[in-house]
From TrEMBL:
Basic and acidic residues compositional bias, start-end: 678-687
Protein name: Nuclear pore complex protein Nup85
UniProt record similarity statement: Belongs to the nucleoporin Nup85 family.
GO molecular function, one term: structural constituent of nuclear pore
Organism of derivation: Tilletia indica
Length: 855
């Protein structure tokens, strides 16, 4: 047995030698349901057992291990796992009846026997080590028989029905052995009923069969007694009556033979006597608990053990079993089958060794059974019997991590795998971080991750399959179905958490529908105010149209957005701040490639990467020289307003709710055209809920974003003819150092029409501020051609947009140089004479403005 551990660096490199029922393309509906349902149970185990420990009022324990209360809860959890396997087996058997089976379903059908063995292992482990009463000090015979009959079905009902419908079944050589098998398995009612078929036989045989059936019908069984001593006394009395009947067997058949001889059927009577006498001798021997008879009749050690506790030693307890099985194993050997090895270790009283061997059966079984055993201290050595020398110290962590790796073969189950990694020790946490950074955040990344399946194990077992064939087999569909199944699972878990903590979580498109303001009511409520301002009413209608379009886009993007927020939620749960920031930046880069700059800004802000924010903002500023004014304004309008406000907080997740009492939609509420809905009041709501998305509420102070906001506001005020306010903004972006140096000349030239106004729009201080920048531009530009490109390059691009396509096409794909340096490198040739002439015009107008202000 290969444990695959490495001592070189002190860490385990555990891998599972067997994949169990998870061979090949395993992502069938039945297996995805098994993964999802058992995951819910698994992640709840630590909290449930911790609660049980707190609830425990005594220190009474099993084998000096966990308390009675903890064992009782562990038993319930084990039964849930067994139920999940039962549901999977039923679904697999149902799917196997289809007329046509794909490769995955066919493999699933082939795996049904192994799944049944897995359920048998869980059942036996539960019977021996996780008793329902939490103590397990009573007799165990009936429980063993129950396990046996559930894991290895005994005599079939069809055969019993055939015997009952036959006129004289006792002439069938298999009749009495079949009844003996029923007694061996505890099917006493069937055995007694079949014996009634002797009613038309010879009176002696008829009487013998009747007495035997009567004894079978009255056998004392432990579940009917509250007192073990009374049960054993009654059972002893019953066994004595069986032995009395057994002792009279020979004389009864002597009389039977004599009667047959008197009837002239001596030869036939001898043969019939032999068959009947041997049959009833074996039958009564089994009932009396003759160990030799039982071992001879048993087809496996499991059957022998079940009959031993039921018939040979009714007083059998869990502590007695390891001694008894040593005798049984001498006659009924343990096979080399991995599942059989696990079962044998369980009955030998070696739970740790059994746990170790489950890795050779199935990763699901190993992860869940080892975790449960470890949490109730069953992996600790119990005396000399369980002195397992090759037990890895991190067995539970290794098994959990191996199962998580198997789950990751289906990318749609990454969220479930993450929680298994989280419960797999330090190495699991390390792997958790790695996985979080490789989860596909966008549809494009998810598509790209499908291709490798054709070249590695798991879903791409078929060699040489191209992407089209893989899609034809439904691989992509299965991954998306798995994602949907995961989301449904997470909704159930979140609902449980919300009911316990009173918290809620935000959602995607569904939330957007619930949160959105009623468009008609919204317009009616503001109709009186807006009717006085036709421009405001037109603007509101335009915002309404844009909002409706963006809501539709939000619905289309909700799955992609939810995936990103799920990753960030996991990072928050595990306090992985650096990883969360890395995920935000990864999403920001992905959005940049799609030219969704507003979303890129949102995630950059949540990552608190001011350099990234500044770079994107600089790019948007430079687009002013490439795009016409209308398209540039639309580009800026996509940025959430919380980001554009100076020293604002980073926006929360998409789908944030809107308050119904919103008074000014345009001031408090915005939705980006990229399908991302934002609300600057989400901080207050999340404070009430006690939950915030990662990066929400983090201060964002970006001068470049503030310049975009101010410059966009300047154009709005200018269009609305609010010229004085527009003039104030131009001076503010220069004096506040918000405008980049390459944009100074543009701002100055924007001021020229305002300077020509008959009404002074700039006061003295503002005029001097403008003059100071004009002089710095002129002096620097005259000093060196590079300075001239810096200050006049943007103006040159605006004046000759057809000569500047590179910036628009390459976007942010180039090197991360400063925007001012890029302006110098990419600027077209500057017509210094024309530029200086315009600057002289500015000087003249500023001088005239100053003289008017001082008059």
């Amino acid at each position: 047995m290969d444990t695959n551990t490495s001592a070189g660096n002190g860490t385990s490199t555990y891998s599972l030698p067997a994949k169990g029922i998870w061979q090949g393309d395993w992502a069938t509906d039945a297996k995805l349901k098994l993964v999802s349902d058992s995951y819910i149970n698994f992640v709840s185990v630590p909290k449930i057992l911790e609660f049980a420990k707190q609830e425990s009022l005594t220190s009474q324990a099993l084998d000096e291990g966990a308390s009675t209360e903890v064992m009782q809860y562990a038993h319930k959890i084990s039964r849930l796992y067994r139920k999940r396997l039962g549901e999977y087996i039923a679904a697999a058997e149902s799917a196997a009846t289809a007329s046509e089976l794909d490769a995955a379903t066919f493999q699933q059908t082939e795996d049904i026997p192994l799944a049944q063995e897995m359920r048998s292992i869980l059942h036996l482990a539960e019977t021996f080590y996780l008793p329902a009463d939490g103590i397990g000090d009573g007799v165990v015979g009936e429980a063993l028989t129950h396990w046996l009959n559930h894991s290895r079905p005994g005599p079939s009902n069809e055969i019993a029905e055939d015997f009952m419908s036959a006129a004289t079944p006792y002439y069938n050589q298999e009749f009495l052995p079949f009844i003996n098998k029923c007694i061996l398995r505890g099917y006493f009612t069937i055995a007694a009923t079949l014996l009634s078929k002797f009613d038309d036989h010879h009176p002696i045989v008829q009487q013998l069969a009747s007495e035997t059936a009567q004894l079978i019908s009255t056998i004392p069984r432990s579940p009917a007694f509250n007192d073990a001593r009374k049960f054993l006394n009654k059972r002893h009395e019953w066994t004595e009556r069986v032995k009395v009947l057994q002792s009279s067997l020979q004389s009864e058949f002597d009389d039977f033979e004599a009667d047959r001889a008197r009837d002239g059927n001596e030869s036939d009577g001898n043969d019939e006597r032999l068959d009947l006498e041997v049959g009833f001798m074996i039958l009564l021997g089994t009932m009396a608990g003759d160990s030799e008879r039982i071992l001879e009749a048993s087809e496996s050690w499991q059957e022998a053990l079940g009959a031993w506790g039921l018939l040979v030693q009714p007083s059998l307890t869990r502590e007695d079993v390891p001694v008894i099985v040593s005798t049984i194993f001498e006659r009924c050997s343990v096979t080399a089958d991995p599942a059989d090895q696990v079962l044998a270790a369980l009955v030998r009283g070696e739970p740790a060794q059994a746990a170790l061997l489950t890795r050779n059966v199935d990763p699901w079984l190993a992860a869940h059974l080892i975790d449960l055993f470890d949490r109730v201290d069953l992996l600790l050595p119990i005396g000399d019997v369980d002195a397992t020398t090759d037990l890895p110290l991190s067995l539970r962590n290794d098994a959990t991590r191996a199962y998580a790796e198997m789950i990751l073969e289906d990318q749609g189950l990454w969220r479930i795998a993450i929680d298994y990694f989280a419960l797999a020790g330090s190495e699991g946490h390390h792997r958790l971080r790695e996985v979080l950074l490789t989860v596909p955040l966008t549809d494009e990344e998810e598509e790209a991750m499908i291709a490798p399946f054709g070249s590695r194990g798991g879903k791409g077992k078929g060699k040489g399959k191209d992407k089209a064939k893989l899609h034809g087999q439904g691989l992509q569909h299965k991954i998306r179905d798995a994602t949907k199944a995961h989301q449904q699972t997470m909704q159930r878990i979140r609902a449980l958490n919300a009911s316990a903590t009173g918290g809620t979580v935000w959602g995607g498109a569904e939330d957007a529908e619930d949160e959105g303001l009623n468009d008609e009511d919204d317009e009616l409520e503001t109709g009186t105010r807006d009717s006085l301002n036709p421009n405001a009413l037109a603007a509101r209608r335009e915002r309404k149209r844009r909002r409706q379009e963006r809501e539709r886009e939000l619905a289309a993007r909700s799955i992609e957005v939810q995936r990103v927020e799920d990753v960030l939620e996991v990072c928050q749960e595990h306090e992985l701040t650096l990883e969360a920031r890395a995920v935000c930046l990864k999403m920001a880069d992905a959005m940049l490639k799609q030219q969704r700059y507003s979303v890129a800004l949102e995630y950059s802000a949540r990552a608190q990467d001011e350099r990234h924010i500044g770079r994107i903002a600089d790019y948007l500023i430079d687009q002013y020289a490439v795009l016409d004014l209308r398209h540039w304004l639309e580009l800026v309008d996509k940025i959430p307003k919380p980001l554009l406000r100076g020293n604002a907080a980073a926006p929360g997740p998409p789908g944030a709710e809107a308050d119904d009492e919103d008074e000014e939609y345009e001031e408090d509420y915005d939705m980006t055209a990229d399908g991302m809905e934002m609300d600057n009041r989400s901080d207050e709501r999340d404070r009430k809920r006690g939950k915030r998305a990662f990066g929400q509420g983090v201060p964002v102070n970006s001068p470049r974003l503030r310049f975009l906001a101010k410059y966009r506001e300047f154009h709005r005020l200018y269009q609305e003819n609010d010229l004085r306010a527009a003039a104030n903004i131009l001076v503010e972006v220069l004096s506040g150092r918000l405008a980049p140096a390459r944009f100074w000349a543009v701002v100055v030239f924007d001021a020229l029409p305002l300077l020509e106004s008959e009404i002074p729009l700039f006061d003295v201080d503002q005029t001097f501020e403008l003059m100071r920048h004009v002089e710095q531009i002129c002096t620097s530009a005259a000093r060196h051609p590079i300075e001239a490109k810096l200050y006049f390059g943007t103006v040159a691009r605006i004046m000759s947009p057809s000569n500047d396509k590179s910036t628009s096409s390459t976007g942010l794909a180039g090197p991360a140089l400063s925007s001012d340096r890029l302006a110098i490198l990419s600027a077209p040739d500057v017509d210094m004479e024309a530029a200086m002439q315009r600057m002289n015009v500015a000087r003249t107008l500023l001088t005239q403005q100053l003289s008017r202000n001082t008059v």
